[in-house]
Design brief:
The protein is α+β, with helices and mostly antiparallel strands. The protein has one domain: SH3 type barrels, CATH 2.30.30.110. It has three helices and nine strands, in the order βαββββββααββ. The strands form two sheets. Strands 1, 2, 3, 4, 7, 8 and 9 form a seven-stranded mixed beta sheet that branches. A two-stranded antiparallel sheet has the order 5-6. The two termini are 25 Å apart. The relative contact order is 0.24.
């Protein structure tokens, strides 16, 4: 399951469309802890307002790599990462909501972007005013 992390994944459309107030259709898992997964939203477009927030960054789509370490390009439609909130969800529920189960074929973020994401998530985790948002199954709503 650890192979899920640091890849660009996509929700099933019925899930992200219902929850589009909080969730992007693309997400990037950052950590797995037992039966829980932590992830951030992907950005499908870059807005000028993201420039100096310290919580958003562009990714280099051409610097990704596959499971064998071969250089590849991310072709998903994601341009950046929104690290303003960290989401937590049950791992099984998370996997059930993915658009497909072929995550092993999805490329990893490039090394520089992985390090940048780790830095952003570390800052978010250490920030007393940070947001950890739980995605619960009971109501299929963002809590």
């Amino acid at each position: 399951m650890d192979s899920l992390t640091l890849r660009v994944l996509k929700w099933k459309s019925e899930f992200w469309e219902k929850n589009n107030q909080k969730l992007s259709k693309f997400i990037v898992p950052v950590a797995i802890d037992k039966d829980e997964i932590y992830f951030v939203n992907g950005l499908v477009e870059w807005k000028n307002e993201y420039e100096n927030t310290g919580k958003h960054f562009l990714i280099d789509l051409t610097k990704a790599f596959d499971k064998n370490g071969k250089d590849v390009t991310i072709k998903e439609g994601i341009v950046g990462i929104d690290a303003s909130a960290l989401y937590k969800m049950n791992l099984k529920e998370f996997i059930d909501k993915l658009s497909d189960s072929n995550w092993d074929d999805r490329p990893f973020l490039g090394l520089a972007d992985q390090l940048k994401l780790a830095d952003y998530v570390t800052k978010l985790a250490n920030d007393e005013s940070s947001k950890l948002i739980f995605v619960k199954k009971e109501k299929n709503l963002i809590m």
